[in-house]
Amino acid sequence: MMDILWAPWREAYVTKTLKKKSKGCVFCQILKAKKDEKTYIVERSAHAFAVLNIYPFNGGHILIIPNRHVADLTDLSDEERLDLLDLLVRMKARMQKAFKPQAFNVGMNLGHIAGAGIPEHLHIHVVPRWSGDVNFMPALFGTKVIPVSLNKVYGLLKNAHKS
User: Fold this and answer.
1) Can you give the pTM of this predicted structure?
2) Under DSSP, is residue 126 helix (H, G, I), strand (E, B) or coil?
3) Are 61 and 125 in contact, with CB atoms under 8 Å apart?
4) 6 pLDDT tier (thresholds 50, 70, 90)
5) Which CATH architecture has domain 24-162?
6) Closest residue by Cα to residue 92 from 107, 111, 77
7) Strands 103-107 vs 124-129: parallel, antiparallel or unpaired
8) DSSP state of 41
């Protein structure tokens, strides 16, 4: 049996995704598009970028991704690793300001067996957490409710940088 949660705000994304069969790395395509608002890139640095996860665990879930297409931390130069971590720290601070979470999950799944959805391009998950953000819906119904839209999250993160 499939669980369904009505989310009409996702229609435009799903329709567009079904029409486009993407080839190559989705992260590389997002970076090259240079359409930050449309692709939800929140910030670019010299060697990395921060983008909203369009399949979030929680509202505000972002990915920190190196510009260079590499699968593992060991493939990055010292300068790239430092820039990646500096961007993570800046985004965590911005998320704290925008959403006031009580905690964060920060992590990487290195390799397909470890759970990486896109194992060929390294990325770091940054997920804001609040007491009670996991409730009866996933436990009883296997359905996660995300109460905020990607556009709202994007706007909050962009504005947190300005103030």
Assistant:
1) 0.78
2) strand
3) yes
4) low
5) 2-Layer Sandwich (3.30)
6) 107
7) antiparallel
8) E
The one catalytic residue in 47, 61, 121, 123 is: 123
Domains in the chain: boundaries: 24-162
Q: Name the percent of the chain lying above pLDDT 90.
A: 53
Q: Are strands 103-107 and 48-52 parallel, antiparallel or unpaired?
A: unpaired
Q: What is the pLDDT of residues 82-103, one digit of tens each?
A: 999 999 999 999 999 999 999 9
pLDDT of residue 25: 92
pLDDT of residue 157: 85
Separation between Cα atoms, residue 49 and residue 68, nearest integer Å = 10
Query: How far is the C-alpha of 24 from the C-alpha of 98, rounded, in Å?
Result: 33
Neighbour tally for 111: CB within 10 Å: 12
123 is catalytic: yes
Question: Which residue do the tokens 């940088």 mark?
Answer: 161
Cα(33)–Cα(26) distance, rounded to whole angstroms?
10
